[in-house]
Amino acid sequence: MMVSRRKQWIRWLFALVLLAAGATVVLARGGQEAADPEEDAAEETPAEEDAAEVARSGEPAIRGLRVGEGRLESTGDPLVLHHELEDFVGEMMSGGPPPDGIPSIDEPEFISAAEADLDPGDMVIGLDYGGVTRAYPHAIMVLHEIVNHKVDGQNLAVTYCPLTATAQGFKTGSTTVGVSGRLVNSNLIMYDRDTGSLWPQIGATAIDGERTGDTLEEMNLYWTTWERWRERHPDTEVLSTNTGHARDYNRDPYGEYNPAGGYYTSGRTMFPLMADAERYHPKHMVVGARTAERAVVFDMESLAEEGIQRTDSFIVVYDRDLDTAYVYEAGDGASFSYDAEANDGRPFVDESTGERYPAGELPLEQVVAVEAFYFAWNAFYPESEHP
Question: Is 327 in the same domain as 215?
Fold first, then answer.
């Protein structure tokens, strides 16, 4: 099994190395507020240390990381993990490029929806935070994976891992995060530019370095099409291709989403996994969520058909306009139904009161939802609840 997986890794390594190709070009920027610090990510760094070497407290977890830039002052509430931290470290491996070889966008520019050259079916990552709505085209994110910037006075990182199809947002204090060049379960491992600690994106918890065991504070992002996002948010801003880096944003080294093909639909994964996926096709889309005590996973296809699903601990509802989901803690005695014929934007009915709600406004405790390839969520959370 391990030999087979390493053969897969070799076959796909070239695609990963392509992401590091090209020189950084400093472009003129006008007026966009960028996250501190303002330096461009380094294109090349010294060689990394072996993955098994654990950094001492106060030192970066691996060599070649930018550190000492701002402060990651606070972190979010702890989230459950289904593996020990040292097991994640043991399974961590190089993805090919060195630290910052896939450069984050640290001084992003945004354009209007009318200026955006996007097809209706192109995938975007949507942000709706503090009265600001933005779309981050998949075509840009696949080559950078992280955008650092200020939104409503907060330093936020919009992150995307193409190998696991996960888009997640994090608050980063007065620092930023970068691409470490390491992976676990095929998932992006970020590093913070304060301490150089390592943070797998899906788990949102540091596995190595000074902040080991801490959890980043998250916010919801939305994985949807440009047509759907613009219909919901006609005044949205859009991430510009004027990124400061020389990249061909018309070429995806993994495949395509419009229509879907290549890596994104194949049954193959590229790197070893900590748990094997058997319930669905590896690239089947699911939505997961976690609290301090437990994790849950729902099938997006059946959710779209049923509108609402639940487990003992969670309720998930489908937003048919964005083709996305919201996850809530179930609460004692909470009972909701779905009215598929509703045309007022409030299809979810509280059966105890008769009140109706939009998908994102149920009177329950909302949990950050993460859409992902099934194989990736299962590798991190193999003991997830499911309907």
Answer: no
